[in-house]
Amino acid sequence: MLEADRREGWRVLVVDDEQLARDSVKHLLAQAPEVTAVHECQGGREAVDFILRERPDLVFLDVQMPEVDGFDVLREVGVERMPPVIFVTAFDRYAVRAFEANALDYLLKPYSDQRFRDALERARQQRAQGQDRELLKHLSALLEQHRAPPPPPEPSRTSGGGPVERIAVKTGGKVLLIPVEELDWCEAEGNYVVLHAGARKPMLRETLAQVEQWLDPRRFVRVHRSVLVNVDRIRELEPDVDKGWVVVLRDGTRLRLSPGRKAAVEALLRQSF
User: Fold this and answer.
1) For residue 40, which phi and psi values (nearest 5 degrees)?
2) Sheet with strand 227-230: strands edge to edge
3) In a structure prediction context, what are the per-residue pLDDT tens digits for the chain, which is 273 residues long?
4) Which value, to the nearest 10 degrees, does the dihedral of the CA atoms of residues 134, 137, 141, 144 take?
5) How far apart are CA 66 and CA 202, in angstroms?
6) Which of 8, 25, 9 is CA-nearest to residue 17?
7) Contact indicator for 2, 9 with CB cutoff of 8 Å
8) Cα separations (Å) of 80 from 42, 62, 140, 162, 236?
9) What b/e readout covers 122-142, taking b as 16+ CB neighbours within 10 angstroms?
10) Radius of gyration (Cα) for the chain, nearest Å?
């Protein structure tokens, strides 16, 4: 720890829209002797104002928040003015790869006390080693990967203004065009949609409801509130526990059919089961 840290202590900001999540972080921070002040914000807008005004030493930043999310906070504060960040996320393995690739620390909910202490120790080491400029580069790269992609261009739509023929996904500084005919299924993951197209699984920063509006309702159907399936990829339907059903795709993928979605699937298939 730096001498300045010993003398002045750390001022830490906890940003999360859930009170229980903020309380959990604050409880663990209370056990860290170098932390002398903890502030909290329940939304991204409030966090931006606080960071610019108070310039805390460390920020625990939730990625998934309504209206202004964690990435929006980074953009509005600016990477040059952003303090060291430990991201807190409920994202699964797909989105976590972005954090790992840019060497930024993160806490994947639910996390253990030891994992929290490890993240805090890493922040301490980065601070002591004066890695501020390196942090800026990582933040810039992370923002570039998660910049909201533009909506699909008009040429991708059919001449009658109907369903799209391809979906544009910005990834790695490029725009990847996924033909709709190659889509097997789509899965909501936090603020993103994973587009399963064979071996490819690009992530689109969009809602599943929006993606559903782009697609042909005669070909794609919701089988779960977070899953949209290409009907042409369905191989069979198997009975599940509690008189439910499992949708089995041609590649063997098994997806649970929510009871409330059964009627929609039957209507699209034009037969009951």
Assistant:
1) -140, 150
2) 203-204, 192-196, 185-189, 227-230, 220-224
3) 333 333 468 999 999 988 999 999 999 999 999 899 999 999 999 999 999 999 999 999 988 787 788 888 888 888 788 888 888 887 655 356 556 545 457 788 888 999 999 989 888 887 777 665 566 666 666 666 555 444 444 334 333 457 889 999 887 678 889 999 999 999 998 888 999 999 999 999 888 888 998 999 889 999 988 999 999 999 999 988 767 789 999 999 999 998 878 888 877 777 777
4) 150
5) 23
6) 25
7) no
8) 23, 20, 9, 43, 53
9) ebbebbeeeeeeebeebbebb
10) 22
Q: What's the Cα-to-Cα distance from 46 to each of 64, 79, 94, 121, 174, rounded to whole Å?
A: 15, 17, 29, 27, 33
E strand or H helix at 137, and its extent? helix 132-145
The separation between the first and the last C-alpha atoms of the chain, rounded to the nearest angstrom, is 65
CA–CA dist 194, 205 (Å, integer): 9
Query: pTM of this prediction?
Result: 0.52
Tokens 């899953």 correspond to 227
Question: What CA–CA distance (Å, rounded) separates 185 from 173?
Answer: 24
Residue 161 identity (one-letter amino acid):
G
Q: Residue 188: which H helix or E strand, with range?
A: strand 185-189
The CA distance from 87 to 71, in Å, is 10
Name the strands in the sheet holding 58-62, side by side, starting at the edge strand that comes first in the sequence: 35-41, 10-15, 58-62, 85-89, 106-108
Residues 181-190 as b or e (16 or more Cβ within 10 Å = b) = eebbbbbbbb
